[in-house]
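Feature request, filed as a ticket because there's no other form

It would be nice if the structure record came with a short human-readable summary line next to the tokens. Right now we just get the raw output. Example of a typical job, pasted below so the devs can see what we mean:
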Amino acid sequence: MGSVLLSGTVTDNAGNPIEHLKVTLDWNSGSYQDIKYTSSTGRFDANLKDSDNSDIITVSIVIEDIDGEDNGGLFSTHTERVTLIKNEITEPVLKLSYRLNRATASENSPRS
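Raw output as currently delivered:
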């Protein structure tokens, strides 16, 4: 595979883009990590480089609201695992889309 561009867009339930969300991507069993932030259009791009010889790449994606009520309100954290099978990837860019729900203050408060 070499590398693949993972492009994502994050919106609220009304379809409005959410800016300045932290997007953490881990792949190849945690061997690689990349942190991105969504743009004013809610978009993030990450280049997943692969030096592993396995046929499957599992990517853990965590999208977090790090600025509280700024940029459209407080949103719930979203976590997802995406499995990529190398010989089934036909496009150089994988596009993902997420809709986040508004959160209550207690959902995003630090846990003790």
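Something like this underneath would help us a lot:
The chain has one domain: 3-100.
The chain is about 0% helix and 50% strand.
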